[in-house]
Please model this.
Amino acid sequence: MPRQADAAVLSERRSVLSRAVADAANRLGMGPTDIGQIVGVSQSTASRLVHGNYRLKEAAKEWELAAHLVRLYRSLFTLLGGDDELARGWLRSANAAFSGQQPIALIKRVDGLLQVCEYLDAHRARV
Model:
């Protein structure tokens, strides 16, 4: 019986993170191409994720990257008072803190995703 309960918990965790990624990406104006590049899945898999037909695999790298994408969204949401339009603009604007690069371009690399998350967390700590 405990195995069945463990499977249910795992299934729920996969569903929660998958929905959170799809929601964050939607709010940030990201399509399947962006999501796929950030999370490390194909565009078709990212499309299925957005439409609720794919759940992230907890034992895979996509899980960690997806968690960081949600972390990024939550930090932006907090810093910008929940203004998704402002968050979309911030992601697509050149930023002096990133040598003039747009954060959306940076987060498509693992090191860039972590760098942007750390930057936002540092600014969030000031609030």
Observations:
- The first helix runs from residue 2 to 27.
